[in-house]
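## retry 2 of 3
previous attempt timed out at serialization; input unchanged, resubmitting
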Amino acid sequence: MKANVTTLEAAKAGTVELADAIFGLKPRPDLIHRMVRYQLLKRMAGTHHTQDRSEVNVTGKKMYKQKGTGSARHGDKSVPQWRGGGKAFGPKPRSHAVELPKKVRALALRHALSAKAQSGDVVVLDKAVSKDGKTSALRDQFAKLDWSNVLIVDGVEIEDGFVRAVRNLPNIDVLPVQGINVYDILRRKKLVLTKAAVAALEERFAGATNGAEAKVKAKSKDGAKAGGKAGAKKVPKGGEEAKR
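## retry succeeded, writing output
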């Protein structure tokens, strides 16, 4: 599929071909949901902690004698039912991360890119460069382009002046291409890819194919196997011709 290339001055800068294996898939919400859940759970710190009855700082002395008081039997005050006692079955530090195969994560990224492309929210930018590194100038350029909520993905390295100018703008995120991820793509309305980012993504997914191409290849392989079996001659045991 072809996409128009624009500049920060809202001028046309030609066209670029977007690979169907990356931007032309039929989006699968289940894969995208699994990837977002994977990211959100993996970034949780898991440092929550409550003190149980062995950790609270109270005396271990028995509250009162076992018999003769008319009250229920009790030991020390560290039990959960008393104020200042330990928490029963409270949270402890742990990892919330879940497992997700690497191939599934890569496929989910391609489906997220395809979902943005199908909704018409993918923009190809010529270069992400700020001449003076001023936020006001970049704000005016984004206003002309109608970019109020965007994720900008550049090549491996991002110009320092551009990062400095854009970091004071709300709802504008900038990432290098190696940091592109499903969650950040979905949380912004538009996805802006520079030509360097498009080239890096195509290189990253060079061996990927879309679903239709994969089915055609699978059918051709099955047909070749079937033809080979049909054309094969039966060889008698021992490698010699059958005796009459």
